[in-house]
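WARN no homologs supplied; continuing
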Amino acid sequence: MRVLLLSQFYAPVIGGEERHVEALAGELALRGHRVSVATIAVPGAPAGETRDGVRVHRLRASAQRLPGVFTDPSRPHAAPLPDPELSTGIRRLVRAERPDVVHAHNWIVNSALWTGRPLVLTLHDYSHVCAVKRLMRDGAPCAGPAPVRCLRCAGRHHGVATGTVTALGTWLLRGRRERAPGAMIAVSEAVARGNRLAGSRLPVHVIPNFIPDHLWRAAGAPVPPGPRDPRLPAGPFLLFVGDLARDKGLHVLLEAHGRLRDPPPLVLMGRRVPDTPARLPDRVTLLEDCPHDLVAGALRRCAVALAPSVWPDPCPTVVLEAMAAGCALVTTSAGGIPDLVGEEGALTVPPGDPEALAGATRRLLGDQELRRSLGAAARRRARDFTAGRVVPRIEAVYRALVDGDGA
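OK structure emitted
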């Protein structure tokens, strides 16, 4: 099958959504499909290249010609409206490659609604209905879209002018996305509910993100003997991986850590964002720009991993990687996390509750057998979220569209 994937970013520019697209492209190629990726051009990256058997096309977007649109020119986000140059580039690519299926991820779909090919849209967040994609308002979960509320929220987040355009684009294109010839995939039940997909005209499938099979196998290997990575503490430590943001519950985590008596060191692995605290408390270490092997090694060595998201986190890959590593994990019941951990894959606490987070962490630190049994159960459950089990479900969506049976 010929598959064209659309993603606003692609390696070397990588985030959680883009890591999923890169992994999906590689897995589809390994399974015998002819895979191409179209993404937005970034400075310093070639217009076209082949990476691991996948042809990558970097297309210019009209929004890149407008000064001040992107705060970081190296990360040109897809717009909530069709971009003229990007749309033209995608149509030319479709005519040249004649894919059987076009599979878009989030807002780049708005520049691909008129290709005439079967179209799959995967929603990794709440961007189908929410102009800020997170379904959060004033630090709390939003009740849902409403005109005045959305305009005000988008204005605070993006600025008045950009926010107004973003909110209007989100509303205006919603119906067109649901009338496109194809299907929709939500990465969790929470994403399907939050995006109001129950009334969609298209078939809707809930298919989670995945981790590569080799990563699941490697994560279960014994911790190798020999010296530890010098960037990690010598003794037991707590671990957080992700953006150092309030939405990820960093403020709750720091307060919870401060409530522990004589706590082990807390290691933060991630990137600073505008709301990251300028100074961190004692016994808290920040490691930025961590390669994946360092993250994987830390997950295998830590005493407890913590994922205290307060926003409705759609399908956090770090939770899957922690489970695959057999971590004793404390997380929250926010968003799609319950879909991942089930009843035995982690200790879950209410989002935004530092005392509950501290209590669960304290419980695990004091019970080695509970840590072991929880980690073993998490690893067993993580097997259901490997490529070998998830990618065939995506292929089935493609085949249904190609065979003319979108349901």
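The first strand starts at residue 2 and ends at 6.
OK
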